[in-house]
Amino acid sequence: METNYETIVIGGGVVGSGIAYHLSERYKEGVLVLDKKYPMSGTSGSTQAWVWVHNKTPSWYAEFSMYSAELYPYLSKKIGDVEYKRTGGLSPFFNESDREKAEKLAESYRKIGIKIKVLSREEVLEKEPYMNPEVAGATYSSIDGNVNPFRLIDMYMRAAKRNGVRYSTYNKVTEIKKHDGKYAVVSDNGAFECKNLILAGGTWSREIGDMLGVKIPVNQLRGQILVSEPLKPFLNFTISGLRQANNGEVLMGYSMEEAGFNRATTLDVIQETANMAVQYVPGLRKAKIVRAFSGIRAMPEDGFPILGKVPGHENLYVAATHSGVTLSPLIGTLITELIMDGETSIPIDRYSLSRFG
Amino acid sequence: MKTDVLIIGGGPAGLSAAIETASRGLDVTIVDEASQLGGQLNQQTQTLRPLPSVYEPMRGFELAYKLIEQIKGLSVKPLLNHRVVGFYADGSAGITDEENVFPVKAKKIIVASGAAEKAVAFPKWTMPGIMTIGAAQTLINRDFVMAGREAVIVGSSDFAMETAMQLMAVGTRVKAIIEKQSEVSAIDQEKVSELSRNGIPFYFNSFIKEVRGNGQVEQIDIELPDEVITLNVDLVCMDGGRMPILDVFYQLGCSFGFQEELGGWVPQYSNTFQTDREDVFIAGNAAGISTQGPLLLTGMIAGISVSEELQAIRSAEANEMRETLWKELGLLEYKEVYSGRVKHLENFTSPILKDQFIS
């Protein structure tokens, strides 16, 4: 296998593969993606995969997410059908007292051009007839939706490979050295050299940063998800907490726990999740749960993406974020611009690693 | 709910583990998804031999009765029609009665989840009238329903030979035994000769090419080495072997090894039948596919080890008993299986699959 590359991406998940694909649109050779297992075996393969803008705060982060969501229809045209559906997103509330908070959120979004409606009980039930009739209202955003994460990453990989990107999988990076202005990346299956190095290690970002003496403050958060038996299509929207997939299965989950890299499921959270789902959609009480799984998600210490050049290290870039599915088309585009053009079409200074001091 | 010992699976291994623990004063809970204890023994009408020296040879359902007799009067709580569906963060088992899920906190868990049959696939194999040999046996012996009038058996293991004879005993005409290898896989040649004496043809190096029927199987094509023959049947019993049921071990985070002689993937365990989770023990077919005698012995060893851990028996005594039972296991178990088991124990500290939930 070729050992010299222009650019190496560490991590082939939705963020790393998104970057590799977008890079491959601009130059056809010299990109290698290294993955310790196989893309989709980690976070990117254990997600509900919402493309979600609304109720992200503050509004500048929602705006950033919106730009990415807007890229999805175009992305599908380029890489193929990723089962992206702009269903619209509903975030229900059950107490009338929450309406004021919802109005405030809508107002702050309006200033930056994101349209969010605060729906009455009747409007919610008209949109989503199977929602609990005790719902008080919901915020609604038309740009929200979801995607099939397996198709998304698979299509990223296929398109990237067609453009000449190489993948080396089940190949863990063990050491990174810098010499003569280049990066030497040592892996289980040999050493590689590159000019540009992109750290897209997701939940392992901290460990990979340590190899270069760079502190990337990303923690792990566990999310547990339940899957129902396939049901007739009956949910129209992506609801904060659950969605119905194309094959009829309903995915349910909103949990966040600190459990390190432990992907086990626990009945405590499974029962909580089932109760949440039944509160939102009472009809789910009759559905059979066929599967439960956990995903370990990346969560930067302050919750916001870490993107761009690594201060003090030439040609070293980092992309570590929560909500990788939502943000991947935008992150791929911006990191490509940064490497190829030296600047980005929308500012990303706010997301620099330097903010952590 | 709290208990000293939670036994998952109320078949022969689970019951013999229950006898060993409850008879030493421990509080035992057995959970089983069936409506009665005894597991597969309930439909086994054949005489089981050899059994451990404490038991006379007897029929399967008689053994079930005998085992259940022994837990009467002891502190054993059977949770029938219940299933373990997962575990809570504090280690409690989540048990459902199909309505609610409730936690059971146990000091030790013995998993005796048994074996699952493997099917043999061929074109249109999902048609009604096509079932595993175990399903056919359950229909005739437990439910008293004739599985079919004219049958073929695919496979020639001891279990398949046994089932063929039981089908004949209830009036089903067995038209052929179809085996893809060049000889029978059954070890007990007596049953094979008896079937031959009854004029049942054995087709070796053969397999089912296709089945046909309107709503249920009516006709099958058998590919013999040099021709294809067609038989009219309304029952096809297939024997794809059995494999340990592993779901619970997986949920408990146990390690696994692969041992062909034991049925494939098997949880790792030591000679005390303790898994690499110190509160979890294993017994029965889950610890390697075997015959009823050895299965009882594994349950006894696991029960003794748990009794020792919970200080219901002194270590010296437990060691001595285990040693005797292991010797008996070596005598009773098919050589191939026993040597597979010994090899499996050696891999205890170097499992192929471990830390499956650590990403």
From TrEMBL, chain A:
The organism's place on the tree of life at top rank: Bacteria
InterPro entries assigned: FAD-dep_OxRdtase (IPR006076), FAD/NAD-bd_sf (IPR036188)
GO molecular function term, any single one: oxidoreductase activity
Keywords: Oxidoreductase
FAD dependent oxidoreductase domain sequence ranges: 7-338
One cellular-component annotation, GO: cytoplasm
SUPFAM superfamilies (UniProt xref): FAD-linked reductases, C-terminal domain, FAD/NAD(P)-binding domain
UniProt cross-references to PANTHER family, sorted A to Z: FAD-DEPENDENT OXIDOREDUCTASE DOMAIN-CONTAINING PROTEIN 1 (PTHR13847:SF287), SARCOSINE DEHYDROGENASE-RELATED (PTHR13847)
Designated name of the protein: Sarcosine oxidase subunit beta
UniProtKB/TrEMBL annotation, chain B:
Gene3D superfamilies: FAD/NAD(P)-binding domain
One term of GO molecular function: oxidoreductase activity
Pfam families for this protein: Pyr_redox_2
InterPro entries registered for this protein in UniProt: FAD/NAD-bd_sf, FAD/NAD-binding_dom, Metab_Enz_Cyan_OpOx_G3PDH
Keyword hit for Repeat: no
Entries under PANTHER family matching the protein: ANAEROBIC GLYCEROL-3-PHOSPHATE DEHYDROGENASE SUBUNIT B
Organism of this sequence: Cytobacillus firmus
Entry protein name: Thioredoxin reductase
Keywords from the named record: Oxidoreductase
Domain FAD/NAD(P)-binding residues, every copy: 4-291
Origin superkingdom: Bacteria
